[in-house]
Amino acid sequence: MYDLILIVVPSIVTAVTTWAFSRRKYRAETRADELDNVEKAARIWRELSEDLEKRMKDEIKELRSDNVTIQDQFTIVLAENKALKEQMSALEKQLKEARCENQKLLEELKRFNKNYNPAP
Questions:
Q1: What Rg value do the Cα atoms of the chain yield, rounded?
Q2: d(CA 113, CA 93)
Q3: What is the pLDDT, as a whole number, of residue 83?
Q4: What angle do CA 72, 57, 64 make, to 5 degrees?
Q5: CA separation for the pair 31, 23 (Å, rounded)
Q6: What are phi and psi of 29, to 5 degrees?
Q7: What are the tens digits of pLDDT across the range 27-60?
Q8: Separation of alpha carbons 105 and 81, rounded Å
Q9: Kindly report the CA angle at 92 between 86 and 94, in degrees rounded to 5?
Q10: Which CB contacts under 8 angstroms, 24+ apart, belong to 104-108?
Q11: How far apart are the C-alpha atoms of 64 and 72, rounded to whole Å?
Q12: Residue 118 has what pLDDT?
């Protein structure tokens, strides 16, 4: 029996000790892997954000350039619109004067037709 205890006890102590150290080593490796994974994820997000920031800056620059172009075109259209309104106003004035002149001519023509009655 004593021999059995001498064989079993050291085996159990060795097994428990091995298990404890293995468990400690596994936990340390797991933590290291987790930290490595977190570091990799942080690097990926950093790269993505830097790329996104660069793209957004380029897009904003392009949009500002487009905005300046559109503002210039808008200014030109406003000037053309103003000129066309002035031209339309002038044409409306000419039309009004032409109608007035036409009315006078019609009245004269009616008077002339009244006074001129050719013999049949």
A1: 50
A2: 30
A3: 98
A4: 5
A5: 12
A6: -65, -40
A7: 777 777 888 888 999 999 999 999 999 999 999 9
A8: 35
A9: 105
A10: none
A11: 12
A12: 64
Q: pTM of this prediction?
A: 0.51
Look up residue 97 and give its two tokens. Answer: 């004067």
Q: What is the pLDDT of residues 68-104, one digit of tens each?
A: 999 999 999 999 999 999 999 999 999 999 999 999 9
* Pair of tokens at residue 57: 């800056």
> CA separation (Å) from 90 to 80, 84, 100?
15, 10, 15
One-letter-per-residue 3-state SS of the chain: CHHHHHHHHHHHHHHHHHHHHHHHHHHHHHHHHHHHHHHHHHHHHHHHHHHHHHHHHHHHHHHHHHHHHHHHHHHHHHHHHHHHHHHHHHHHHHHHHHHHHHHHHHHHHHHHHHHCCCCC
Q: Distances from the Cα of 67 to the Cαs of 53, 73, 75, 78, in angstroms? A: 21, 10, 12, 16
Tell me the one-letter amino acid at 50: E
